[in-house]
Amino acid sequence: MGNKENHSSRRKFLRNSVGALAAFTIVPRHVLGRGYLAPSDQLTKAVVGTGGMGRGHFGYAGTRVVAICDVDKTHIQKGLDALKDKARGVKTFTDYRELIQLPEVDIVHVATPPHWHGIIAADAAKAGKDIWCEKPMTATIGEGKRLVEAVQQHGRIFRLNTWFRFSDRFYGMGTTVEPIKKLVNSGLLGWPLKVTVSRHTGFDWKFFWVGKTNLTPQSVPKELDYDMWLGPAPYKPYHPHRVHGTFRGYWDYDGGGLGDMGQHYLDPIQYFLGKDNTSPVSVQVDAPQQHIDAVGTWRKITYTYEDGCQIILDGAGTETKAAYIEGPNGKLYPGFKSDIPDLEKKLAAFPDPEPQVTDFVEAVKKRQKFALNEENGHRSATIVNMGKIALQLGRDLKFDPVKQEFIGDEGANKLIFQPMRGPWTI
């Protein structure tokens, strides 16, 4: 029997005898065919963006890097150097569009500046790849909506790389998020709740991520494809402060400390408040007038949900005695301290939160939705992007969480989908 016929008959047998799969302990991937992974297989990964963040994700268990991509050739070399003896056979690219077409790639890890996240992740989904994406998920609300559509239309598994809703100590709270979720679910604090995110509750807004307004154009380094680095963003003359480690200070690419840390801080709040399928209905800002290009600082951003729950981002640090969570019946402070007597003893009587799918490798192999996926990730990214728009416009806004658009503000709605330079689109 010819090789082609042999593969065809094996695929036909597997389609007609699904139960037979359970009998396999080790199944070569070529037996199962394209798109089917044996549980014993190690997943292959391609990383787009090999700056410090991208290189830091080379070594995840259960995956093997087979390709890397960066618009800066020095970053590509640093990536190869970081892989050391595992660099042999790794393919290198300066254009991600070539990388995502590699048939041997299972997962595309998007570790670029945020203005590229939506486009690259959506293109990867269309190319049949699963996706691991850095935060914030997208730089605009509109890109998030389109990315959700692309991931679901093409049946991909998506993971956003902020993990605090399911692992690690949650900054100044001194605990993982699980007991906080359990406390909120118990109703012991009452309802509605107010969450204050500030340096006094353990969350630093990193106001060193501010842009400069007096940049003098400079020559583009020969190793950098600056036009490709800009991609969909408006053309601005090159200056080293715009790129690599300091890009967060410019609205075209990110949103300062809010863009950098917002999804880390706010995604767990969406989770423990039970708001994964909705968004705030208003955002209020107290901030100096923002520069059109360079991100500045802000004093306070207040989000309000339809049921009265609020999230207060205290940038100025004026809420010195605020609890992290405050409800009608009690408060929770950093270190999981509370004014509710015998809190931990009372909590023991309540059920633990529902388990989550937190192993991305297993989620990909079993085609299970990951705990932090395209849908809830888009909702927490939307909080960040609502705040960015309100800051840029310098005014309070009302939001329709169903239509995912602003109410009665044409200027704000224009920023939901921001123009992209050709040929880029999502």
From TrEMBL:
Domain Gfo/Idh/MocA-like oxidoreductase N-terminal positions: 46-160
GO MF entry, a single one: nucleotide binding
Gfo/Idh/MocA-like oxidoreductase bacterial type C-terminal domain ranges (all copies): 173-426
SUPFAM superfamilies assigned to the protein according to its UniProt record, in alphabetical order: Glyceraldehyde-3-phosphate dehydrogenase-like, C-terminal domain, NAD(P)-binding Rossmann-fold domains
Keyword Manganese: no
Pfam family, one: GFO_IDH_MocA_C2
Kinase in keyword set: no
InterPro entries: Gfo/Idh/MocA-like_OxRdtase_N, Gfo/Idh/MocA_oxidrdct_glycsds, Gfo/Idh/MocA_OxRdtase_bact_C, NAD(P)-bd_dom_sf
The entry's keywords: Oxidoreductase
Origin superkingdom: Bacteria
The protein's name: Oxidoreductase
The organism of origin for this protein: Chitinophaga cymbidii
